[in-house]
Each structure stands twice: as structure tokens, then as C-alpha cells.
UniProtKB/TrEMBL annotation, chain A:
GO terms for molecular function: 2 iron, 2 sulfur cluster binding; metal ion binding; oxidoreductase activity. It comes from Niastella caeni. This is (2Fe-2S)-binding protein. Keywords: 2Fe-2S, Iron, Iron-sulfur, Metal-binding, Oxidoreductase. The lineage of its organism: Bacteria, Pseudomonadati, Bacteroidota, Chitinophagia, Chitinophagales. It holds the Pfam family Fer2_2. Residues 75-148 form the [2Fe-2S]-binding domain. InterPro entries: 2Fe-2S-bd, 2Fe-2S-bd_dom_sf, 2Fe-2S_ferredoxin-like_sf, Beta-grasp_dom_sf, Diverse_Oxidoreductases.
From TrEMBL, chain B:
This is Xanthine dehydrogenase family protein subunit M. GO terms for molecular function: FAD binding; oxidoreductase activity. The lineage of its organism: Bacteria, Pseudomonadati, Bacteroidota, Chitinophagia, Chitinophagales. PANTHER family: XANTHINE DEHYDROGENASE SUBUNIT C-RELATED. It comes from Niastella caeni. The keyword Kinase does not apply. Keywords: FAD, Flavoprotein, Oxidoreductase. The keyword Chloroplast does not apply. InterPro entries: CO_DH_flav_C (IPR005107), CO_DH_flav_C_dom_sf (IPR036683), Diverse_Substr_Oxidored (IPR051312), FAD-bd_PCMH (IPR016166), FAD-bd_PCMH-like_sf (IPR036318), FAD-bd_PCMH_sub1 (IPR016167), FAD-bd_PCMH_sub2 (IPR016169), Mopterin_DH_FAD-bd (IPR002346). Residues 1-175 form the FAD-binding PCMH-type domain. It holds the Pfam family FAD_binding_5. PROSITE patterns: FAD_PCMH.
Amino acid sequence: MSTKINVTVNGVQYSHFVEPRLLLVSYLRDVLHLTGTHVGCDTSNCGACTIHVNGKATKCCTLLAVQADGCNITTIEGLSNNGELHPLQEGFNECHGLQCGFCTPGMIMTAADLLQHNPQPSEADIRHALDGNFCRCTGYHNIVKSVQYAAQKMKEKEVVH
Amino acid sequence: MIPAAFEYEKVKTVDEALAALSDSDTKILAGGHSLIPAMKLRLNRPAKLVDIGGITALKDIKEQDGEIVIGAAATHADIMYHNLIKKHLPLFAEGAATIGDLQVRNHGTIGGSLAHADPAADWPAMVLAADAVIELKSSNGRRRIPATEFFTGLFSTALQPNEIITEIRIPVPPDGTKSTYQKFVQPASRFALAACAVMRFTDGRTNIAFTGVAENAFRDGGAEQAIAGKALDDASIKAAVNAALQGVSVLGDHYASVPYRMHLAKVYLKKALHKVGA
Ligand SMILES: Cc1cc2nc3c(=O)[nH]c(=O)nc-3n(C[C@H](O)[C@H](O)[C@H](O)COP(=O)(O)OP(=O)(O)OC[C@H]3O[C@@H](n4cnc5c(N)ncnc54)[C@H](O)[C@@H]3O)c2cc1C
Ligand code: FES
Ligand code: FES
């Protein structure tokens, strides 16, 4: 049995018939071929699959595609603006916030949610917000710096995200 | 991991949800952050899911007749960021911030957490300490049940298969009430290895609830009596800590043995009482 869903992903509207058990991450990767969203653990723990659903950071390995019907979705592919990197993307680049890069899309999408609620987070705030995102390479230190860089940059630019 | 196939219905009202629940082997889907992981592991394979995520009325948080009323489908983050909660029920804002991680808080709901009744879940201890009443609806009508009668065992509650949790009602604590949630976090899962919620009223009444310690969250009457009406000082806190957990069958597992978990629970009670006494 299939169910029809309508979603907006990175500003583009899509309509598909999907099986209710299809996970949102599989819909994004296998149906829409948006492979920037990674699957690390597939058990809601690592945060590699984090995207935004109606502006909220979401582990989409733990959401059904049918639950996202009618929602506005942003993935890492939708974060830059006409080729201009988002301050978080720039921050990870400038501050060496990644090594293998596997965790990076999820880290950035989670940090973007934090900065919406708390534009000037302390180091402790950043570490608490990234509790659900694992990195096996960097030791987190430069990830925190990358987020601080983005917060500063957004303050300077007064970019509202 | 892919769940076994199931039928799916998204409902707009509580009545529609209740009608859909009459089908056999049907489960409510709220945030899905307990149910979907269990279905992916095929620990759970319901024939049908009724998605209540679209019932906006169930997400309301409001003040009504001297009570804070929280809709069952309000997420942990909705509660944590809400001004009414920050003002009147800081216990809930403090405790919600410790649940899982930012992404889990964006989707998991208070109703889902109470219905699931994980022995280490955070909401059960908070609703117990806050004297909450849980409202349940079925096609036969509505009933309100105190949190103290809701949790009945490991993943077990007073909720019947044909019932839905609709709201959680908490009497607005009088001015001057102090509260805190103290949790020892299991670093990988972020569930509580032991946690303690305390609400201390100006008349000296002290509500003390534990989670993560036994098969279900519970109020600790012994500790409450030991401290009730007394000034919170080293001696009275020590007496409450000594009186705590009497007759409680404490859980032991590969993370924490029985004596260690008992010790942790007492240490976290002590921290909580010092915090509300400060
Ligand atoms: C990585 C991770 C870490 C977590 N860490 C914590 C933690 O530290 N502390 C903690 O407390 N929890 C934690 N959780 C659990 C999380 O809080 C869940 O979201 C919550 O327990 C269930 O809420 P839900 O809305 O997701 O419910 P669902 O998963 O949708 O449902 C859970 C159960 O409740 C039933 N149900 C849901 N809503 C209702 C209702 N209104 N009426 C009747 N039945 C209903 C469902 O049928 C199902 O049986 C964690 C989860 C994950 C994935
Ligand atoms: S893949 Fe979703 S949390 Fe790890
Ligand atoms: S950069 Fe490799 S996992 Fe984070």
C-alpha cells in the first residue's frame, strides 16, 4: 500500500507515492538522490543524518517519509545561498572543523538549529547542542571553533537564519 | 534497518484517532522517537500506525483555571522553550533540556514518553514531582488519573489500548516554590542512570521523585516525610537521604550494579535538596 506525500525540499516541491515504512533518509537519498545527508548508525544516535524539517534539526533515520508530508525540508545541499557558503559551511572550512567529513553535514544542520535559538552560544552551549552528533576524527575542538566562527560572522553580517 | 510493513493513517482530530484505534493491533505514532527505533529493530511490528502528529490542538501549552495544561503531542523542545513553562514550571524546562539531544527534543513528545514509560525516561519523574494529572480519552469518554497512579511497572502504565493521552495538567506552583531536576546521564544513550526531581513548597512540603532507579518512576514517601516541614540543612538532608529508597527494588544492569545505582540515586537526591535549599 502506498501513500502520497507532498514535500518541499530545498525550495523544490516534490510529490511521490511511498510505502509508509520508507524512512525519510531513504526518501532523500534513494528517491531524490540528495546524498549529502549521511547514514552513520541508523539507530538515532550519531546525528549524521540530521536535516531540518520545518526549520527543526531532525534525525531523519528516525522519521518516516509519510510523517514529513506537507513539510518544508532543508538538507545540507540547500544551505548555501546562490553559491555563497552559509557562515557555518565557511566556518568548518576556515577552522578545519572536519577531517573525513562524514559527520559534517549533520554537525552543520544541528549547529544551524542552535544558532536560530541562541545566536551567541557559549562553548558549553555548543557542546550541549552537539550532544547527538558524533565525530570520529576531529576530537570536536575545531567543530566548536567552527560554530563560534559562524556565530561571529552572522553577528557581523546580521544575517538572519 | 527497515520496519516491517504496516498501514498508516494520519488523523486530524482526537475523535478520528480514537475511531482508528478500534482496529486491532493498532498503535499511536507521536514523535516516533521510541516507536520507530523499536520497529526498525522489529522489536515491535504493529499492523497499523495512527499518526497524531497532525492534531494541532494536542500541541497546545496553556494556563487554565490555575493549572498549566500541556498537550500530549507537545515536544520536549516546545515545552523547554515555552514562556509559561519557564515562568511557572522551571522544573520542566530544566529537565526537558536533559532529554536525549537537540534533535530528539525536537520530535519526542511528553505524551509519547509517558505512554512508553521507559524505566529511565525523564518525564515520569518530573510529572510525579509536580503533582500532575494525566488526562486520557477513549470512545467511552474521558478520565483523569494522578501521575502517582499512572506508572505501574516496566514499560507499563494505566493506559488502556483504546485510550489516548490528551493532556497533562499541573497545578501552578505557588510563588516561592523551588524545584530542580538532577540527572546522572548515561553518556552514550543520555538516558538517566539515576535522576531525581524535587519540588519544595513554601510550607515545607517536599515532593521527591526518582527515575532510572526501579522498574518505573516513583515518589519516595520515606524521603518526603523525613524532610517535610524541616529547614533544609545538612542534618535534615542527611536524614532524607538515609530514609530514601526504603523497600524499593533497585535495578541492576551492566551499566550500574544495584549498590552503585542506589548510591547514585542518593547522591542525586542530596544534590537536588541542596539546590532547592540554596
Ligand atoms: C537517541 C535517543 C535518546 C533519547 N534519550 C532520552 C532521554 O535521555 N530521556 C528520555 O526520557 N527519553 C529519551 N529518548 C526517548 C524520547 O524522549 C522519545 O521521544 C519518547 O520516549 C517517546 O515520545 P515520542 O513522541 O517519540 O513517542 P512515539 O515513539 O511516537 O511513541 C512511543 C509509545 O507511546 C505511544 N504513544 C505516543 N503518544 C501517545 C499518546 N498521546 N497517547 C497514548 N499513547 C501514545 C505509542 O503508541 C508508542 O507505544 C531518547 C530517544 C532517542 C532516539
Ligand atoms: S544515521 Fe541517523 S542518527 Fe545516525
Ligand atoms: S570528520 Fe570524520 S567523523 Fe567527523
